[in-house]
Design a protein that fits this description.
Distance between the termini: 35 Å
CATH class of the largest domain: Alpha Beta
Radius of gyration: 17 Å
Strand content: 5-15%
Shape: globular
Order of helices and strands: EHEHEHEHEHHHHHH
Number of domains: 2
């Protein structure tokens, strides 16, 4: 069972999310919160697997709440709920440790799929919206950012594929290796980069210039 915490100051949004999630046999909303401070408290109390986090809320916003939640022991995956085009805080949330985001107009099937992907540690990187978002805030590589020297050529290929939004299965087909082998490479990449998840790895790939915004 995948346990979720939903965070939004609008009761209608929380109700809609609960309705969507409660229809799935493997998903369960274990707590709700109306602002960031309550989200931090509920995350500590209920230890959810995935947090669906709004950004603009009274008091503590989603950026500060995300930073506090992911700093804890065995933190949950945080997915940001955003309107994207209007939300200037998304970049800060990614910096704070969020692992992905959902548009607030995402259809129910897309929300369910994203939650399951987040829990599994798989890609929440659509070839369009997500990479466009990442590219928009790392539009030039940091001059002092470098990838670890011990990243192998194959691991570098896998990282580039992840940055293009490919799933493990798609990477396996492209590189002519099994999905289990891809998962092994991904685990090694995350460890060598010192990041928690695929999205943070992609951000670092952009910052280091391994992937260029214009090529995405």
């Amino acid at each position: 069972m995948i346990r979720l915490l939903t965070v939004d100051d609008q009761a209608l949004i929380r109700s809609a999310l609960r309705s969507i999630i409660d229809r799935e046999p493997d998903l369960e909303v274990v707590a709700e919160a109306v602002n960031g401070a309550e989200a931090v408290a509920q995350a500590r109390l209920h230890t959810p697997d995935v947090v669906l986090m709004d950004i603009r809320m009274p008091g503590m916003d989603g950026v500060a709440a995300t930073r506090e939640i992911v700093a804890g022991a065995q933190p949950p995956t945080v997915l940001i709920l955003t309107t994207f085009d209007l939300d200037e805080y998304v970049h800060a949330c990614l910096r704070a440790g969020a692992s992905g985001f959902l548009l607030k107009d995402t259809d129910p099937a897309g929300i369910v799929a994203a939650v399951r992907a987040a829990y599994a540690g798989d890609a929440i990187l659509s070839p369009g919206v997500t990479r466009r978002l990442i590219a928009s805030y790392v539009d030039a590589p940091a001059p002092d950012a470098e990838l670890p020297a011990d990243l192998t050529a194959r691991e570098t290929d896998v990282l580039r594929a992840i940055a293009r939004g490919l799933s493990n299965a798609e990477i396996g087909r492209e590189l002519f290796v099994g999905e289990t082998t891809v998962k092994t490479h991904v685990t090694a990449i995350l460890a060598k980069l010192g990041v928690r998840d695929r999205l943070q790895a992609v951000i670092l790939a952009y910052e280091c210039g391994l992937v260029r915004p214009r090529s995405s």
